[in-house]
Design a protein that fits this description.
Shape: elongated
CATH topology of the largest domain: Helix Hairpins
Distance between the termini: 73 Å
Radius of gyration: 35 Å
Structural class: mainly alpha
Largest sheet: none
CATH class of the largest domain: Mainly Alpha
Number of strands: 0
Number of domains: 2
Strand content: under 5%
């Protein structure tokens, strides 16, 4: 079920579904081709239902294992939403359900799934990082208000405006303009801007990148271990089924041999009985 050809087919269906969903945003085009778009949406739903059924059937005698994966549960819910009564009458919910089908492309490509999982794993440390950045913006915002608030109220008139200006400066986009305006107010203001650029734009961003890369590496290891466990579980299940089949075959052979022995004994008894009557 995870063959590359199957993944390509599923990706093509998801991509085409996304294209149709985008086409529906053009009111003129959607009005002229409404029936065609609805037909295509029905075809895509059929493809996704068949795909989900095949994946569920691939678990054989253990269909419950299908729902052990969060991605499988997500796919099941997204596809199943199309069959919820009353959903078709609510255009907003219907479009949202169709949009969620596009998100399923994350499951099709393992590398993309690893990136998404890594982003999710990096959220807790990023929360601490956000607190640090907020503190940095607040401290520099207060300093900026003290230094430039009276002369440049548009950028530094209060701590909120100053923090917003500093937040935009994290990308160094408006640093030259702020530096030039600050230098006209205080000749030594370059110390303020250079120190902020060094701390915020280099140290903070590098730490942020480090957190994401570390989460990505950890997620790759976890995914590799998960795939290995799944392969081991599948191999163990196949071995158990093979052993059960061999045991059943041995029992059938033993029963066949017992039946043959019984037939021979019955034939011998019948022969002796016939000989006794003849004597």
């Amino acid at each position: 079920m995870d063959s590359s050809a199957f993944s390509v087919v599923v990706f093509a269906a998801i991509f085409a579904n996304a294209a149709v969903l985008g086409a529906e945003t053009y009111s003129g085009f959607a009005a002229r081709h409404r029936e065609t778009l609805e037909t295509l949406n029905g075809v895509f739903l059929g493809v996704f239902v068949v795909e989900l059924t095949l994946r569920l059937a691939s678990y054989g005698r253990r269909p419950g294992d299908f729902f052990r994966s969060g991605w499988n549960v997500f796919d099941f819910v997204v596809v199943g939403c199309a069959f919820v009564p009353g959903l078709s009458s609510n255009s907003t919910l219907l479009r949202l359900a169709r949009l969620l089908r596009v998100v399923r492309v994350v499951r099709v490509f393992p590398d993309l799934r690893v990136i998404v999982l890594a982003m999710a794993r990096s959220l807790p440390p990023l929360g601490s990082m956000a607190v640090l950045v907020t503190l940095l913006l607040y401290v520099y915002g207060i300093f900026g208000w003290i230094l430039f608030g009276a002369e440049d109220p548009e950028r530094w008139g209060n701590v909120g405006t100053a923090m917003l200006n500093l937040f935009v400066m994290l990308s160094l986009e408006n640093l030259p303009a702020n530096l030039e305006a600050g230098m006209r107010i205080h000749p030594w203001s370059w110390i303020y801007f250079v120190s902020y650029a060094l701390i915020a734009s280099f140290i903070v961003i590098n730490v942020l990148i480090g957190i994401v890369l570390n989460s990505l590496e950890e997620t790759r290891k976890i995914e590799a271990e998960r795939i290995e466990r799944m392969a081991s579980r599948a191999e163990h299940g196949a071995r158990e089924e093979a052993e059960a089949t061999d045991h059943l075959a041995d029992r059938v052979t033993a029963l066949r041999e017992a039946a043959e022995d019984l037939e021979r004994e019955l034939a011998a008894v019948a022969g002796r009985s016939a000989s006794g009557r003849a004597g």
